């Protein structure tokens, strides 16, 4: 299949067929991101927030993994579709990744020897904490 054929076929699939079957890709990928965020936060006890764009990009990785065991035209068309969806989502919601510029906000040292440092990104406002155990290891 030539690239112009792949693009035309993908457009038909994602703008008509899949949208009619599953609704808007914006809502679908927002729902996927919310479910994956809940799962990952619960399983790994970390605070992360996936976006709809993240979900679409991760679907490309999912489809890419399928190519390891054989190539089908459908898999490649799906990757093109997810790339188009992720580009649209990223540009419409300004979800392009932040190149963080961290500034130290506070340091808290607890009696048990754990020091927690908090920083804030001056570009996007994200807050990050890091803990360090200063207590000597007993041998």
What keyword list fits this structure?
single chain; 139 residues; alpha+beta; 2 domains; three-stranded antiparallel β-sheet; 4 helices
Description:
By secondary structure, the protein is α+β, with helices and mostly antiparallel strands. The protein is 55% helix and 17% strand. Strands 1-2-3 form a 3-stranded antiparallel β-sheet, with no helix packed on it. The chain is elongated, with a radius of gyration of 21 Å. The N and C termini lie far apart (66 Å).
Write a short abstract of this structure.
55% of the residues lie in helices and 17% in strands. The chain is built from four helices and three strands. It has helices at 3-22, 25-44, 52-67, 73-92, and strands at 102-109, 114-121, 127-133.
Show the helix and strand layout:
Layout: H1 3-22, H2 25-44, H3 52-67, H4 73-92, E1 102-109, E2 114-121, E3 127-133
Antiparallel strand pairs: 1-2, 2-3
Helix pairs in contact: 1-4, 2-3, 3-4
